[in-house]
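Before we proceed, please read the two lines closing this message. Let me know whether the structure tokens fit the sequence:

…
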Amino acid sequence: MSQELLELMRERITIGLEREETIKAIDGWERVALLTLKSGEKFHFTVKDNTIMVDEGPIDNPDMRIKSDEKTIRKLFLEEMSAASALLRRKLKVKGSASDLMKIRHIF
């Protein structure tokens, strides 16, 4: 299941990187985020050089920590739910700086 989710995230990130607003938002932004699913699976995102990459597995010392469940992550990447809505419903928990929280919607 994790390989399928990883492929979905990569595909949707590629689509997102075609949007001018995404490129503007991540311009010069360098962060590493750790996503932990309720199932225990972990993925990490690297935002660097105006691109976003996602890989399976944990990473040391992430700038942001994200917790959610697979269903919510799928909805976020398929744009069936906004990050703001997921945060308000407590389906998505993010720990990081305030400015990072404002940009997280460009990853999801």
